[in-house]
User: What shape does this take?
Amino acid sequence: MSSRASSPTSARPLSAVVTGGARGIGRGIAERLVDRGYQVVVADVDAAAASATAGEIGAAAGIGQDVRDRDAHAAVAAEAARHGALAVWCNNAGVGDDGRLSETSEDAVRRLVDVNLLGTLWGMQAALEGFGSAGGDIVNTASLAGLAPVPGYTVYAASKAAIVSATMSVAAETPRRVRVHAICPDGVQTAMLDGQTPGGLGSLLVHSGGRILTVDEVADQAVALIGARRVVRSVPGWRGGVSRFGALVPSVTASATTVLAAQGRRALGRRGRA
Assistant: This one.
């Protein structure tokens, strides 16, 4: 796609939605879409932060949105339609509570499922309803945790695995003018990662795999999916193959957990965070 986003059938500009767009990966995606010429609507549960981010990056609007509310997606789609023909919808909003299933509260389980999975499903529905005859792209922020067993992130990983599965199914359901993608990054340096349980199993495993990704790296790869036929992209790519192997032989993951956790503890120790 050209650096300036405009409809092939008219001079009307194209609009884009980024949920969870006030900070982190969402903000990085929104910045790049603005640079490409889209009229971007930054949506976030923190309405003040969404408005501030929109002003700072030159987006068309910044509005409050709770992705658990299906009707809120329709309101965001209507806002995007005010600024241009809806062409891109990025379901980025998510929460990252870590912990073994036995340690995870009912509230945390519901939050992970409602925000990560239902929020993405409602967003895809709104995008499919909002795209015009020219179609568009849906980009769902999933996770490498959605491709393999991840002890210490059981419910989070399950919610992300469901996003990957739904992405593939919707991609197969829709006409070719609509493209549906999932970006599956390894650990990314965000406030979500910083908020993990210090020394918890999930945090140790995330830090066992080498370098933590930057927001810019993930945002670049997410936006590069727009216009492409690629459905699932892992970041970095080689980790996707390793993760899928782990999914085929989960017993190997179970036996390797102690070793990987020790590697993560050493890595965090070098950073002074163990």
The chain has one domain: 14-196+212-243. The chain is about 50% helix and 15% strand. Confidence is low (pLDDT under 50) at residues 257-268.
